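Demo today. Your pick:
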Amino acid sequence: MSAVQQPWLSIVIPTYGRAKSLGQHITAVHACLGQDFPGQRFEIIVVNDASPDQTHVLLADLTARCPTVRVLNLAQNLGQQAATLAGLALAEGSVVVTMDDDGKDAPADVVRLVGLLSAGYDVVYGVPEQEKDLAWHRRLGTTVKEGLLGSLCKKPKGIRLTGFRAMNRATVDRIVADKRRHVYISATILEKPVRIGQVQVAAPVRNASGYSLATLARLLLRIAIWYGPIDRLRIRPATPHPLQQRARFQNRARISPETPS
């Protein structure tokens, strides 16, 4: 009996409240991967962050029709970083790509990120051209965040960090092993010496953003607390974060779709 072939590429997409457009986006990603990587096994992991709409119904239909799509429905809303972390814990590929759920990250750019990663990088970011229509609080939040990560995590100058990234297996394993209560993925990546590349992608046509000023402020505060001087005094727990334990169980059990009760 031959063992089940592991996917070499995992795409992780956290989602919240995108029932109207998510299906089209996932279909486009699937079609593009099939064209760019013919004959190679991949998986698309969608983490539903307790969406209030019919996202779970849409995803149940997708998994029934497309075996390469795996779904994790979270019981409560945990935020984009935690939802992405849960997806990373489920990912089986030797290469893992994270991307947004709103279609702003073009599926065609995945092959560009993966191509540069194969040149010996640990992580490659897809960096959009300057976005003139970005809300002022998003611009301010990005500036402060980049400054914080430069100060606390020694982010290299000239490198922009985004949620559209390709990572090798070692980098993903290190992120999933992080035992902080609040993990900020790019900050964890920067804690160790890494080879970082970036690919310029077209500026996206944005849908309405779910990031309010309060959300951004909370995110920045968490980075300062969990990756700053206070964190160095903190004793790490011996067991993984409960979210990681749950995701690992799902992976071992080979469970993909889960319907909320």
